[in-house]
TrEMBL record:
SUPFAM superfamilies: TPR-like (SSF48452). Pfam families: TPR_16, TPR_19. InterPro entries: CellSynth/LPSAsmb/PSIAsmb, TPR-like_helical_dom_sf, TPR_rpt. The keyword DNA-binding does not apply. Keywords: Repeat, TPR repeat. The keyword Kinase does not apply. It comes from the Bacteria. TPR repeats lie at residues 262-295. Residues 42-59 have a biased composition (Basic and acidic residues). This is Uncharacterized protein.
Length: 340
């Protein structure tokens, strides 16, 4: 039984105060670990001197653990934090450091309550709130990201990176109007932020504000003429106008840049279906799933097209593939979010 499973039945409080830690083992530290800086290196040197002078001082050990964590050396930080806990580090400090150590990892589900409690107990701790928000974002838990970013913005309203991340969280949870407000605010400070403008356009499309979305998408096409996403967005606007010839021209341009893109192929198939060109739609969808066998929507659309064409056997086959892929995706998301 590996260490993670061995700890699975132990309470969170016992894990922290009893000196047991879970930490994802790998050949290297997390790729998102911060690059060492001169200040961080100095922090480590000072902390090591304190440990040499006071080896049984819990706070000295915790300081070294913190320095190592900030250097991205979590595997070295873990035993120092364990020792600090054994030496009597106060529970609140231990839990904070523990969460910060776990945050970059794919932590087990039983720590979710600890993450929420530590965030609630430290409402003004920017380092902690940001680490938890980033961790939730990595897990796709966007509904948890948004309130944390709002807390961070209350502490520093001018921090545009936090505003951008809140916009992403709102966009991912379909709060399109609020997401658009965040991306507009980011663009006010940095009009050249391409990703903010593209996400603003996506949010406006989601809010059915086609004219506004089109303006932003045209700016995106000027900034990055080889990017297919703005072209797909503009094609969506033309779909809404029922201007299928304009949509086809945009999708042709997108296909010239990325003909095997699943996004391009799916939109082309949608266009052909709107034009009642069933054979072309069928060929495009078959190509889509050949190139991207795990494309759920491609299999679903194929099932629908085959059913409409009277080919029940193929319709059933692709529907079953879609259902199996959907089941796997739900299981993946559940595991990623710690909802086993």
């Amino acid at each position: 039984m590996n260490r993670r499973r061995a700890l699975a039945g132990v309470g969170v409080l016992a894990l922290v105060t009893g000196g047991y830690l879970w930490y994802a083992r790998s050949d290297s530290d997390p790729p998102s670990a911060p690059a060492p800086t001169e200040d961080a290196g100095q922090e480590e040197r000072v902390a090591r001197e304190a440990v040499r002078d006071r080896p049984n001082d819990a706070h000295a050990r915790a300081r070294l653990a913190r320095a190592l964590r900030r250097l991205g050396r979590g595997r070295e930080a873990e035993p120092e934090l364990m020792q600090a806990i054994r030496l009597g580090l106060p529970e609140g400090e231990a839990q904070r450091e523990y969460v910060l150590l776990l945050a970059p990892q794919n932590w087990p589900d039983k720590f979710e309550g600890l993450f929420q409690r530590v965030a609630r107990d430290n409402p003004n701790d920017r380092e902690l709130l940001r680490a938890i928000a980033d961790s939730y974002a990595t897990k796709g838990m966007w509904d948890r990201v948004e309130p944390l970013c709002t807390q961070l913005l209350a502490l520093d309203p001018g921090h545009q990176e936090w505003r951008f991340q809140r916009g992403v969280a709102r966009m991912r949870t379909a709060y399109h109007a609020k997401a658009a407000d965040d991306f507009r605010a980011v663009l006010t400070h940095d009009p050249k932020n391409y990703q903010a403008r593209l996400f603003l356009a996506h949010s406006l499309l989601g809010d059915a504000r086609m004219a506004e979305a089109e303006r932003e998408l045209r700016v995106c096409t000027k900034d990055r003429p080889n990017d297919v996403e703005p072209l797909i967005g503009l094609a969506t606007c033309e779909f809404e106008r029922n201007n299928l010839s304009a949509a086809q021209e945009l999708l042709t341009r997108a296909a010239e840049r990325a003909g095997n893109s699943p996004l391009v192929l799916q939109e082309q198939a949608t266009l052909y279906l709107r034009q009642q060109r069933t054979e072309l739609a069928l060929a495009t969808l078959k190509r889509l799933v050949e190139l991207h066998p795990d494309h759920r929507q491609g299999h679903l659309q194929l099932a629908q097209v085959y059913l409409a064409a009277g080919n029940e056997a193929e319709a059933r086959r692709h529907e079953q593939i879609y259902q199996e892929l959907d089941r796997k995706e739900e299981a993946r998301l559940a595991a990623q979010r710690g909802m086993r």
